[in-house]
């Protein structure tokens, strides 16, 4: 029952991510106060991104509405991008996996940490979609998530009653964000974007340690390489083209957050055997 509830909750929040990302981008590109009110995630009605027709509740059921409509708007018949059900499903799966492999204890603090992590996941999904579509990591998402990450660190330190948690978070912050800042300054923004630097500080904070932070960078670089090489081979991408690095960094952090201890244990066991 818990898995089913989390899966359904993830579907709903995935749908929210899709709506929020589109509305945020549209709001940033309009000066009309009336239009901004229509685009408000709190007050505006859900609408088709093509014809702007207000959607009914039966048009908004995650995944099922998209499937029943054949991936097209009920009103203007224009295609609805597969991003919408995909984001909903990925968010739902991440919610379930986060419960299955949560790295923290049970109890009140464990519940708070899990809730904070789910909030972070929703924000991370929004950043992934925004970066893929528009090659940007909005401060309006990154900065609030950084605040949540700081609170997460403090709750974890209280739960474990260990100041080393805070020290580890600072070390992780410097190992990712600090490294990216140096690369950004040295290359004058040619190797890495300013948004990635700010994201690096956020993700490093959540990594929780020097080694974990370096693991985030390593896994992200590996994922980026695995993506880029086939694209280059198929001539869909060139070395000079820009590839959004944010999605790889976030995916890497999720892997390290949920499975980092397991991965490090495997490396330690291999080292002992050698």
Give a quick precis of the structure:
The protein has 274 residues and is mostly helical. Helices cover 71% and strands 0% of the residues. The chain contains ten helices and no strands.
Summed up, the helix count is: 10
Q: Could you say which overall geometry the principal axes of the C-alpha atoms support?
A: globular
Cα radius of gyration in angstroms? 20 Å
Strand content: under 5%
State the total count of DSSP E strands: 0
Structural class: mainly alpha
Order of helices and strands: HHHHHHHHHH
Low-pLDDT stretches: none
User: Largest sheet, if any?
Assistant: none
Residue share in helix? over 70%
- Note the quaternary state here: single chain
- Overall mean pLDDT score? 88
Distance between the ends:
44 Å
Task: Summarize the helices and strands and which ones pair or pack.
Blueprint: H1 2-28, H2 33-38, H3 64-68, H4 83-100, H5 108-134, H6 139-160, H7 164-187, H8 194-207, H9 210-233, H10 246-273
Helix pairs in contact: 1-4, 1-5, 4-5, 5-6, 5-10, 6-7, 6-8, 7-8, 7-9, 8-9, 8-10, 9-10
Report on the architecture of this protein.
Helices cover 71% and strands 0% of the residues. By secondary structure, it is an all-alpha fold. It is globular and about 55 Å long.
Descriptive key words:
274 residues, globular, 71% helix, mainly alpha, single chain, 0% strand
């Amino acid at each position: 029952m818990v898995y089913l509830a989390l899966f359904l909750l993830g579907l709903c929040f995935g749908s929210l991510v899709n709506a929020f990302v589109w509305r945020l981008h549209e709001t940033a590109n309009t000066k009309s106060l009336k239009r901004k009110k229509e685009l408000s995630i709190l007050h505006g009605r859900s609408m088709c991104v093509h014809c702007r027709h207000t959607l009914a509740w039966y048009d908004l059921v995650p995944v099922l509405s998209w499937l029943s409509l054949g991936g097209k708007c009920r009103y203007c018949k224009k295609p609805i991008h597969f991003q919408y059900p995909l984001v909903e499903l990925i968010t739902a799966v991440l919610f379930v996996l986060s419960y299955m492999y949560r790295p923290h204890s049970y109890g009140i603090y464990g519940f708070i940490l899990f809730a904070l992590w789910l909030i972070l996941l929703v924000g991370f999904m929004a950043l992934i979609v925004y970066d893929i579509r528009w090659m940007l990591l909005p401060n309006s998402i990154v900065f609030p998530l950084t605040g949540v990450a700081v609170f997460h660190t403090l709750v974890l330190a209280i739960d474990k009653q260990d100041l080393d948690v805070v020290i580890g978070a600072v070390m992780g912050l410097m190992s990712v964000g600090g490294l990216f800042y140096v690369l950004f300054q040295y290359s004058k923004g040619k190797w890495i974007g300013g948004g990635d630097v700010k994201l690096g500080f956020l993700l490093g904070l959540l990594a929780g340690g020097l080694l974990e932070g370096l693991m985030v960078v390593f896994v992200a670089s590996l994922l980026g390489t695995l993506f880029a090489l086939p694209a280059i081979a198929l001539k869909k991408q060139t070395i000079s083209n820009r590839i959004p690095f944010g999605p790889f960094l976030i995916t890497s952090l999720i892997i390290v957050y949920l499975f980092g201890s397991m991965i490090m244990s495997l490396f330690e066991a291999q080292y002992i055997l050698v």
